[in-house]
């Protein structure tokens, strides 16, 4: 039995966090220091009650307990009673979440593929720490600082923990090279590795630029502006901006990107919170580099938050044609609050509205996060991802763009041109291939073994002439069998065009568009995949409508056509 002890440092360390959350929550959710004494008194009583219970658990509960874990759990359960996007991150979670929006991280600079319980180096960043010591694509990473990186227990978290670390520190890695029996050992000094949020930026034809943004990070605006400037100098007169799958990020980066495309004194977005402390209105501020010329924005059900700010601002100002499927529907703004132990509270402080006055936030009930998370499944059941006729509008939430086009609030941005989700190629067989990373492994092996002959030709010639051979497909089937992926001929034939496109695209990526320290673009991969991308192809065919908008002419929207 554990001896009774006074409340120790574990609780002392955590108590300021509880108080901080309570105080910040009280300030932002309703109480204030001027006239809010009764509410602050309620907060004090709540903190005292929690402190009393936690002290009793720590000193008198029959079994040993971890008070840190209890506090973290209680905070998370408390926040579940609020909206679906207010959240608490423990110290490690907060650090990982922050790195997703930073412009770089400290590590050794490799991209890897985890295949059949083995870590393969897909590429070593040119000029990065791993490349400088001699590590190259195709190498098998078998150990780091004496810890094995082979076997079923190895996953991305294990790999991150071993390879990432403070710049200037060293990690000893063991690699096995194809065709060699003895491993090589390298001592790699970690350094700052840049990360990029714009994954593609190229000319589709002599007048159409394509830019894909994966998320809105610290560096996103500058990346976007640099690439758009280059493409404009190459003759771009119209722009396809791809925000599909983009979960959002920094609001101000999204606003600046809109400002580059939207001329005049126009509203981009406004926010409304409790009181006026977190109310704001963002207008265009400067002359953008692409204020004239047709703009197309691609979105889908996974485009959220900052992505919806961009799409909503450009749609409401009749500046861009929106193509794809209804976006996620996140119209709540979170303020990150760093707590004393490195953990973080992300507290919802306001709602944002598009220029026409639309709230893009989809409906939710406080404390019913499970129902909120089922929205995606509900869209599938209603057929909304496949057929525009299944989209339902709330007539009470009807708004108009600056030119008079009808748009709707109530959850997400509805596209002007609908493109149903393509499931023709999707089967359990290809899902299993993805899960085992087999397609990427086939492409990596082919690229490495044919590097010399492939690098002698241009990507343009490769893209025009290269065909995935029957021999490569036979190898794919053999690898699938080795990794216990059961072959299904009917599913295989159904997925075959997509399988071939993926293999070809990854070969191109490994040979011509390895992520470089300079820009991080994967143009060749996206150029290959665009041939099977129905949203991309339909957007390309719809530029006439976007050009009408650019000339100040109005076009029929999806919502118009559904109401006729």
Descriptive overview:
This is S41 family peptidase. InterPro entries: ClpP/crotonase-like_dom_sf (IPR029045), PDZ (IPR001478), PDZ_sf (IPR036034), Peptidase_S41A (IPR004447), Tail-specific_protease (IPR005151). Pfam families: PDZ_2, Peptidase_S41. This protein is α+β, with helices and mostly antiparallel strands and 564 residues long. 40% of the residues lie in helices and 19% in strands. It contains 21 helices and 21 strands. The strands form 5 sheets. Strands 3, 4, 5, 6, 7 and 8 form a 6-stranded antiparallel sheet that branches. A 6-stranded mixed sheet has the order 10-11-12-15-16-21, sandwiched between helices. Strands 1, 13, 14, 17 and 18 form a 5-stranded antiparallel sheet that branches. A hairpin with a 4-residue loop joins strand 10 and strand 11. The radius of gyration is 26 Å and the shape is globular.
Ordered list of secondary-structure elements with their pairings:
Layout: H1 9-29, H2 37-60, H3 67-79, E1 87-89, H4 91-99, E2 104-107, E3 110-115, E4 118-124, H5 129-133, E5 140-144, E6 147-148, H6 156-163, E7 170-176, E8 184-189, E9 191-194, E10 198-203, E11 208-213, H7 220-233, E12 238-242, H8 251-261, E13 267-273, E14 280-283, E15 294-299, H9 306-316, E16 321-324, E17 332-338, E18 344-353, H10 369-373, H11 375-382, E19 398-400, E20 406-408, E21 417-418, H12 428-435, H13 438-449, H14 451-455, H15 459-465, H16 470-482, H17 489-511, H18 523-529, H19 534-541, H20 543-550, H21 558-563
Parallel strand pairs: 11-12, 12-15, 15-16, 16-21
Antiparallel strand pairs: 1-18, 2-9, 3-4, 4-5, 5-6, 5-7, 7-8, 10-11, 13-14, 13-18, 17-18, 19-20
Helix pairs in contact: 1-2, 1-3, 7-8, 8-9, 13-16, 13-17, 17-18
